């Protein structure tokens, strides 16, 4: 509502302004155009206008004020509303505040109560304080007393410490003196060792001396021997003199020797001859024996000959008796051959006969078959004949019947002829008659034919019978022949045949066996051939003389020989060395001396020299060792005194450090040298107690000297504080 | 190889066979390790690579034997050529490579060349040498130092030349034999075989 009012005010203001600004122009126009004539009206009008404007303005002013008033009222209302609201809020707050106030009041009361309690406590405390102060004072007094006592004790302690220090110094001095004494002791021991060695050397020398003495005694023996030899030589000289005298006789003796040699040669020859002769004799004896044997044989032969002559005679007799001219075995053999040939011929005949018999038998069987056929044929023929006979008989009967009929017919005809006139019936009758005659004739013809057939068949059977008879005869003859043939040779031939068959079988078997054997032998031959066998009759095996195998074998043999030589050489060497090295070879070297030293009784010069050299070198070594030991000992003591640690090498790359101030003898530190040269602390019973220092100096600072000095200080302080 | 391509003469055949022996012996020596392998060089022949020795002593020996063998082949008086491998420690014969040679002696009279091309003969020879190479698979290993010798079986009526001497057949005690291929030049027929000592393990 307020805004709308404002807008209306603004619009009116605008319209008013526009109104004011507009009339200026017409005024000017009027000034110019109308002039002063209209001035009055104009003035009135303007006055009116002004009044109107004032009215409008007032109206506006009124409206505006009204508006303002409305606004004021509105704001007033609002303010009041707000005030009311604030009043209610403050009332609420007030209530809150009152509540709080009450609460606070409660609290204050509580606090007051507490205060009173505290005051009470305070008073109690103050009392207690007073009591404590009293106590404190008492204690202070006691303390003072104690302080005084402590001072006295401290004084005594300091005095004692001084004493301890002195004592320690004394101990140190003592220690140092002990160490020096131990050193002296070691030195003395070394000296003792030296002395001992010297003693050993001396004893060795003694031994050598003894050996030398023994050698001396040997030498003396030798000398004696030599003297003996000398005596012998003198004797020899005497002998030589006698010999010289004998030598004068030598040429004679030589001559004699020559002669004897000749004799000897001659005798040798004769001995050879003798041996030859002996051999000859032997040969002759053998010959003789052989001759005797031959003689005996001859006698035997003669006996044989006689026997044979008798036999021959018998043969001849046989020949004469048999009529064959058998004079010699040849004849006999000829005869036998002839017989054999004959036999063969007979055999052949036999074979031919056999074959003939077989053929005959075959033909016989054929003929028998034929015969049976023929018989059957004849039987058939007989049957035929019989049937034909029967037929013939029937026909004859018929013929008889017909003739009778004909006779009857003829009689009838004659009766007719006689009864009737021949003219009436004659042609008819004659006709019939003729017919009948024809029939008759036919039958007769047939009959004749049949008879002819019959005769023919009979003839045939006759011929067949003849044939049969001939065949039978033949058969008989054949049978006879066969029988005779079988009788003559069958027995012999059969036996022979069986023998021959057996022989053939045997031969066949043998042939197979031989074939098998042949195969086996061929296979064996093949195998041998494969293995490289050969026929020495036809073949020879050659190879080059200088073939690789021979060369290799030769080389091998040479090697073996060389090795053998070397072995024998070496063996000799060894033996000579074992014998005492009296024969010193040029190849002897120093390494062999040591082995032969123990065995050699009289040592050679070289060996002695070498021994001396060795001894001197050993002595030098020993001295160096002593010096080194001394120096090392010195160094160790210095290290011990300066650093406060005794360093020992327990095993390879392990060092044991023992402090001067160690509480126990076993308290030590172990260090191990690593592969890269770094030192590492090993765990010991003692090092376990130094955990802190290990952590600080080794793990943190990584300095072994610092660690060691820390340990020293610690141990030192521990010793001094006690 | 003096013969023409069409056929082969006695002389050509002898040379061909001698050449085969030269290569065959070389390859046996190489395969069986009688001589160290570094003393051999590779050579191509018969369309295959072969090993030839460079050891001067061995070379000299082989040329000696082969030239003599060629002569005998030409005369048709050779029956066998045997390569014997002997153990040096025990003098025992371990292997025997035998080449039986069958000579057609009629070729001596008639000089007409035979109808067989060199190429087919060389093919046959190649297969024989291949087989020799393959035998290494079944022959026992030669564990000890060994040496070899060449024996020639000839006719009895032959005059023994200088430097040559008679020898034994060097037969292996308890041997196993294996026949290899053969080849023929139609004048000389060569049957190869190897015999080796039976080992206890077999």
Automatic annotation (TrEMBL), chain A:
Domain of life of the source: Eukaryota
GO biological process terms on file: attachment of mitotic spindle microtubules to kinetochore; cell division; mitotic spindle assembly checkpoint signaling
Main subcellular localisation: nucleus
UniProt signal peptide: none
Coiled coil: 94-318, 433-580
GO cellular component, one term: centrosome
InterPro entries: Mad1
Key words, A-Z: Acetylation, Cell cycle, Cell division, Centromere, Chromosome, Coiled coil, Cytoplasm, Cytoskeleton, Isopeptide bond, Kinetochore, Mitosis, Nucleus, Phosphoprotein, Ubl conjugation
UniProt subcellular location: Chromosome, Centromere, Kinetochore; Cytoplasm, Cytoskeleton, Microtubule organizing center, Centrosome; Cytoplasm, Cytoskeleton, Spindle pole; Nucleus envelope
PANTHER family according to UniProt: MITOTIC SPINDLE ASSEMBLY CHECKPOINT PROTEIN MAD1, MITOTIC SPINDLE ASSEMBLY CHECKPOINT PROTEIN MAD1 MITOTIC ARREST DEFICIENT-LIKE PROTEIN 1
Family assignment from sequence similarity: Belongs to the MAD1 family.
Function, in words: Component of the spindle-assembly checkpoint that prevents the onset of anaphase until all chromosomes are properly aligned at the metaphase plate. Forms a heterotetrameric complex with the closed conformation form of MAD2L1 (C-MAD2) at unattached kinetochores during prometaphase, recruits an open conformation of MAD2L1 (O-MAD2) and promotes the conversion of O-MAD2 to C-MAD2, which ensures mitotic checkpoint signaling.
Official protein name in the record: Mitotic spindle assembly checkpoint protein MAD1
Origin species: Lates calcarifer
Automatic annotation (TrEMBL), chain B:
Keyword Cell division included in the entry's annotation: yes
Primary location class: nucleus
Record GO biological process: cell division; mitotic spindle assembly checkpoint signaling
Keyword list, A-Z: Cell cycle, Cell division, Mitosis, Nucleus
Source superkingdom: Eukaryota
Statement: the UniProt record of this protein carries the keyword Metal-binding: no
Residue ranges constituting the HORMA domain according to the UniProt record: 11-194
GO CC list: kinetochore; mitotic spindle assembly checkpoint MAD1-MAD2 complex; nucleoplasm
Compartments (UniProt record): Nucleus
InterPro entries, per database record: HORMA_dom (IPR003511), HORMA_dom_sf (IPR036570), Mad2-like (IPR045091)
Family per record: Belongs to the MAD2 family.
Record's protein name: Mitotic spindle assembly checkpoint protein MAD2A
UniProt organism field: Lates japonicus (Japanese lates)
